[in-house]
Structure formats: structure tokens, C-alpha cells
Amino acid sequence: MKGHPYVKTGIDMACWDILGHVAGQPVCTLLGGRYGEDFVLYRAISQGAPEEMAENVAGYREQGYRRFQLKVGADPQQDIERIRQVADLLAPSDKLIADANTGWLMHEAARVLRGVADVDVYIEQPCLSYEECLAIRRRASHPFVLDENVDGIDMLLRGHADGAMDVVNIKISKFGGLTKASLARDLCVEMGLAMTIEDSWGGDITTAAIAHLAHSTPTEFLFTATDFNSYVTVSTANGAPQRVHGRMATSQAPGLGISPKWDVLGAAVVDVS
Ligand SMILES: [Mg+2]
What we know:
- The protein is an alpha/beta fold.
- The protein has a single domain (5-258), classed as Enolase-like C-terminal domain (TIM Barrel).
- It has 11 helices and 12 strands.
- It has helices at residues 5-23, 27-30, 50-62, 76-88, 106-115, 130-138, 153-162, 172-175, 178-191, 204-215, 262-265, and strands at 39-40, 43-45, 67-71, 95-99, 122-124, 144-146, 167-171, 194-198, 222-225, 237-238, 247-248, 259-260.
- It has an 8-stranded parallel sheet with strand order 2-3-4-5-6-7-8-9.
- β3 (67-71), α4 (76-88) and β4 form a beta-alpha-beta unit.
- The radius of gyration is 19 Å and the shape is globular.
């Protein structure tokens, strides 16, 4: 059955969990080993007034986060203000990413990039298509992140050959599970490309899978990862990794190291035997 990566991802994650239980090893060991005690997270900052976003960044900075992804991609003038106000309160070792989530047309992206030309900020997925992003990338001096356009190995290789990005965002379910995402991860390491490792969204189970892939990625190649279970209000598993001062460590228990809360998840929608 071709395609359907989002559906296949859950099944693929379950297979890695089973393999880990049979082997008596955490998934991160099966994926290449554990790099360091823990790994770095970023905090996404929802779009709002520039002052409000700066206030949110200051609050999360207090909690230990050092990498911040601003949701921009709206009015260029306001986006410039958002980026500038947040950049002003960060330390030189912090990292700031302006993620437009495909939201700008090319002329808008060009204006924003010119408006923040002197700011130390990464630009993520400014426009909808790969061709638009590439055109903007070629006239920008900022480090560049591609996200939505990279949905498989083909696009990863094409983007690398074109020099279209400095960092790539690997979302597990966009690739169809840990098997394909870890293949992409290993390829990025070989090509010298840093990564954000995360997913489109998720709770405890997805966060555990992200943690195993992120923690088994050589530290210098892991740009950031996401603690999705800090963003949601419902817990779907026991034993899920938790953020500590803007960082996270994966479980040392076999498999994904979690036990699903079946009462929260409800009745099974598919039974495989
Ligand atoms: Mg993004």
C-alpha cells in the first residue's frame, strides 16, 4: 500500500516498541545509541502581538529553554517587529527561528528578510512551494530551515543538491514512521545537515518516539527537538519523557519505555495479530 505516511507511522512506532521489548533494549539504542545525558528542545511561540510574543519568550527562557521558534508568516511589517523585539532579549548563545509555516508570498518574504538583515535569526519555510523557498533562500544571508516541503528522501536529496537549506525539519509522521525518519536522519548526518527532530503534533506516545530518535542523533547534528507533551493537557501514556529546564532525556526502559493509558485512548480502532 503506497503512501498514507500518517497512518503507517503509528503501526511503525508500535513495531519498534515490540522490537525493543523482545530485544530488552530502548528504541534509542536500536537506532544508534544515546548521545549525552539529554538533548535540547525548542519552544514554539504562538503568533500574537510583538510585545506578547516577547513576554512569552522571556517566560519560557526563565524555565530553561534557549531555542525559540516564533510563528510568523502574517503581515510583513508586524513580523519584522516580532522578530526584532524577541531578538533583543536573547543572549548570543540562544537560537531564534522565525517559522512562517509557508505563510508569506515571495514579495512578503523578501521584505521581512530585508527588514531583519542585521538580526541573528534562522528563517524557516517562508513560502508554500519548494521553488519559492529556494528563490528566497538564494537572496537571503540568514541560515535557512526547510520543513513542510521535505516529506521524504527524494526531497531531502534534492534540497541538499540545490543547497536549499542549512537545517532540515524531520517530522516522523511525514516520513511514515521511525524506520523512514531514522533513515533520513542517518542520511542528514552523512551529508552534514543539522536537524530539528519532531512530528506534526502529538502527546506522550509521539513525544517518546521523538525522544528516542532525537537522543540517538549525534549532538552536533541535533538542532532542536520538541516536547509535544508539554503543549497538550491530556496524558496518553505512563513513563513518557518530561522536559527539564528546556531539555529532555529518553527512557532507559525497553521499547519506547511507555505504557499507554488505554482508558484515556478508548477502544482500539484496529486489531492486528
Ligand atoms: Mg516548521
